[in-house]
Every structure is written in structure tokens, then in C-alpha cells.
User: Fold these one by one.
Assistant:
Number 1:
Amino acid sequence: MPSVKKMFLDWQGNYRLAARNEKGLSVNFDAPIVFGGEETALSPMENVLASLAACSSFHVLTILKKKRQNVSGYSVEVTAERRDESPRVFTKIHIKYIVKGQNISPVAVESSIKLSEEKFCSVGGMLKKAVEISSSYEIVKT
């Protein structure tokens, strides 16, 4: 039986919106100023990129931990290109993983990213059907 997720969204005024799940956990949205918003929160499309980075990172970090990599810092930079015409969908997304630590194995990082992107990350699995997604990584010795 498929799992069912339910989200609720409430209007907070102007273009500010608050979404919450059944547990009451929430995320806020707003529109860019050029579209009449106030930029008090990420836009829906920025949230898509943040969700992709977070989803992939959960798996990359889990796999690196299982591979006994001594990660002391970690970050991701996501760059995306969008169409000029509506709907202004992403046409290209690039994810750069930055892994910090001592004796971090490039092979472990590469395989962790590959497994996350090809097998485990649900957000990426959905997006890659509609947009070209590429990635790279950098290891920073601390």
C-alpha cells in the first residue's frame, strides 16, 4: 500500500503562505518583490532547490558516515537556470557538494553522491525526469 502524505497551506496575507504537515511542522513561502511579494521567506522554486539539496545531503551524509569518513563540515551550493517564459521551470540544476574533514576519501565521496542521486534521493528522482541535473564536489582538508 502506498504511503500517503498530507500538507496544509494557509494564507498569511499578501503572498505569504505557511505550509504544515500533519505533525505541525511548517515551512513558509513568499513571492519575490518583483512579483508583489515581500521576500520574507523562500519562493516556491527556491524551496524546490533547497529540498533537492537537503534530500540528497541526508543520503550523502548517511553513506559517508557508514563509510567511516571523518566529516567535520559539509555544505552544498545549488545553481539553477530557468526558462524566461511561463511556466518558468528549471532547465538545468548543478549541485556542488563541499565536504570538510581529515583524510576524506574522494572515492567515498563520489560513491556517496552517486548512490544518493541515482538511488536514494526522492526529490532528485522526481526532478531528473524534467530537468538536467549535474553535480560536482570539493574536499576541504581541515
Note: The longest strand covers residues 70-82.
Number 2:
Amino acid sequence: MTDQPKEVAEAEAEFADLAVDSPSVGIIMGSKSDMEVMEKAGAVLEEAGVSFEIRVMSAHRDPATVSEYCANARTRGMKVIIAGAGLSAALPGVAAAHTDLPVIGVPLSSSLSAAGGLDSILSVIQMPPGVPVAAVGLDNAKNAGHLALRILRA
């Protein structure tokens, strides 16, 4: 993502000190079937008292929603995005392309995968220069929650 316009940076600076009830972490996933795994990241955050939200949005079926969500995440007060996806696992990379916030990718296994989840792992970790995505282990949303906490506390 390129530098923000001066007006956006100034507006964010003005609102930075306001107390709001917005989530610090956004947890997104490509399909409702991913919810059981991705809720584990939310459980870690909840235990630590960190606010978060969980949403389903597909990088393939609804790319405009993903783009808008990620582009506006910082303005809404988010500090980290956790993105879980299986098969081609494009969601973490697409999220990172639309925000300068840290993005943690959770590769997810799928019964539809002929590669046993390796396809998802490779999709999450093989990002082009300038589009960084942190990655945790296959189906390990719990570690994504722990990594988000470390980022928030850094």
C-alpha cells in the first residue's frame, strides 16, 4: 500500500486519542465453514481482554467487501487483521494489499484439497515483495491470536 494522503493521516491523528468501542483486531475468513477454527483466535483475544470482531468475506466471491473492510480497518481503530483461508488461500494476501496494518495469515485445511493443506500454506507464505503477511501453522488460529497480542503489546 502506498503512503496515505495527508488529509487521511491528519484525520487519523485527531481521532487517535478518542476512546471508542471499536475492535482492535479484525478476524476474517473466506467461508462460514472456517468459523470453528478461526474462533480459536477470538478466544485467545477474549481471554486477554482485547476487543475483536469476526467476519466472513471471500477474496474470490466478494473482493470489493474485502478491499473496503481492509482499507478502512485502521480508521475504525483496528491494529491487526487475522485472515484465515483454505485452498488457494488468497484472503491474507488480498487483505495485506489493501491495508498497511499487520496481517496474520492462517492457512486452513480443506476436505477439497488434494494437497492436504500444503496449497494453503504456500499461498499464505509466498507473498510478493511489499505485501507482507505473517503466517502461523496450518489450522492454528490460536497462534494467530497469540501473535496478534504480541503485536499489540510491542
Note: Residues 84 and 106 are 4 Å apart (CA to CA).
